[in-house]
Specification:
Length: 350
C-alpha cells in the first residue's frame, strides 16, 4: 500500500523495473540488461586508476567540461552543443524538467523504453501514448502530435527495429516541440541520424556509454543539440552530475575508437549468429539493429521459458504486456554464453 504522504500522482504508478542484477562473481549467464559482452577499453581503466587519487577530495568539473570537449571533438560539434547526464536516463529526466510543464502532453510510442510513462507521472505531465502497428512503426498521429516534448527511440527498445531515416526526419520537421531522439543502440545500426540536429533546432540526440563503450557501470549519458536546447538541459541538471572517475572514463572511451569499433563488430557478428540459431529452433522475431534480439518462443510461453532458463542460472528479459506479451529480449553475449543458452533452450523446448 502506498504511503499516505506520497503525492497523489504517484499513488498508483508502476515504477520502471530494471533487469535483475545477480551478485557479481556468481555463475550466471546474464543476457537480460543489454550490457556489453566485452570489457571497456584498457585506456579507460588506466584513466580511472589515474583519476582515483588525492583529487577525489575535490568536486569535479560542474559541467564535466573535459568530457564535453572530447565528445564534441569526436562528433564534430562544439562543447556548447553537448550536455552530460548520469546515464541517458538522467538526460531523459532533464528533458522532462526543461521542456514539459505540469499538465503538458509528452508523446511517445508503445512498445518502447518503458521509463517514459512513470517519468510522466513523476513530473505531473500527461502521457500521450501512440500504439505502433504490427511492424512496430508509428503513424501520422504521432508525427503530428502537438506535444511540447516527444520521445523517439531509434533503434527501438525492446523491439530492436530501426525506423527509416526519412520517417524520422519528417517527424522532426512537423513536430512543434522538442523531439528527443534516443540513439542508445545506434552504433549497432546501419548509421546514425546525428546530422539532423544541424538542420533542426528542436532536435536533441541522446546517446549513452553503457552499450557500445562497455561502461554501464559508470553511468554516463550525453545529448547533442542546438546550444539553446543544451542550455535548457544545463539549467535543470543536478550539480556535479558526473563524478571525476566518470569524466575521466568518458574521455578515454570516446578517444579510443579502435576499441569501440571492436566491441560493435563483435556484437553485430554474434547477433547474426545467434539470430540464425534461434530461427533454427523455431523462434520468431524481426531483424534487430541493436545489441539484443526480441524473439517469441514456439509452442510455449515466454514466461515459462524465462522461468526455466532462470533455474539454469540464465537470465533473459520477458515481456507480459501487449503487443509483445510472450516475447523474450535476449542480450547479445559471448559465444560460450550463447551456446549455454541454446543448449538450455533445446532442453526446455523438448
Amino acid at each position: 500500500m502506498p504511503s499516505r504522504f506520497l503525492k497523489a500522482s504517484l499513488r498508483d504508478v508502476h515504477p520502471y523495473v530494471p533487469g535483475e542484477q545477480p551478485p557479481d562473481g556468481e555463475d550466471w549467464v546474464k543476457l537480460n540488461t543489454n550490457e556489453s559482452p566485452l570489457p571497456p577499453s584498457p585506456k579507460v581503466i588506466e584513466a580511472i586508476n589515474a583519476a582515483a587519487g588525492d583529487a577525489l577530495r575535490l568536486y569535479p568539473s560542474p559541467s564535466g567540461m573535459p568530457a564535453r570537449r572530447a565528445i564534441a571533438a569526436r562528433f564534430g560539434v562544439s562543447p556548447e552543443e553537448v550536455a552530460l547526464g548520469n546515464g541517458a536516463d538522467e538526460v531523459i529526466d532533464m528533458c522532462f524538467r526543461a521542456f514539459a510543464t505540469a499538465g503538458d502532453r509528452v508523446a511517445f510510442c508503445r512498445p518502447t523504453y518503458p521509463v517514459f510513462e512513470p517519468m510522466c507521472r513523476i513530473h505531473d505531465v500527461v502521457p500521450a501514448v501512440h500504439p505502433m502497428d504490427e511492424s512496430f512503426r508509428w503513424d501520422d498521429r504521432f508525427a503530428y502530435d502537438p506535444a511540447p516534448l516527444k520521445f523517439v527511440v531509434n533503434p527501438n527498445s525492446p523491439t530492436g527495429t530501426w525506423a527509416d531515416p526519412a520517417e524520422v526526419e519528417r517527424l522532426v520537421e512537423v513536430s512543434r516541440g522538442v523531439v528527443a531522439l534516443d540513439e542508445a543502440y545506434v552504433d549497432f545500426a546501419p548509421f546514425d541520424l546525428l546530422a539532423l540536429q544541424r538542420r533542426y533546432r528542436n532536435l536533441l540526440v541522446i546517446r549513452t556509454f553503457s552499450k557500445s563503450y562497455a561502461l554501464a557501470g559508470m553511468r554516463i549519458g550525453f545529448a547533442i543539440g542546438h546550444p539553446e536546447l543544451i542550455a535548457g538541459l544545463d539549467a535543470v541538471k543536478d550539480s556535479y552530475n558526473l563524478d571525476r572517475l566518470a569524466i575521466a572514463a568518458a574521455v578515454a572511451a570516446i578517444e579510443d575508437e579502435e576499441h569501440h569499433r571492436k566491441i560493435v563488430d563483435f556484437v553485430v557478428a554474434e547477433r547474426e549468429w545467434l539470430s540464425g540459431r534461434l530461427g533454427e529452433l523455431g523462434f520468431d522475431g524481426s531483424a534487430s539493429h541493436t545489441n539484443f534480439v526480441l524473439v517469441k518462443p514456439p509452442r510455449i510461453s515466454g514466461a515459462a521459458v524465462a522461468d526455466a532458463l532462470r533455474e539454469q542460472r540464465i537470465l533473459v528479459r520477458r515481456y507480459d504486456l501487449e503487443p509483445i506479451a510472450g516475447w523474450l529480449r535476449i542480450t547479445i553475449g559471448t559465444r560460450p554464453q550463447h551456446e549455454r543458452l541454446l543448449a538450455a533452450l533445446k532442453e526446455i523446448l523438448a
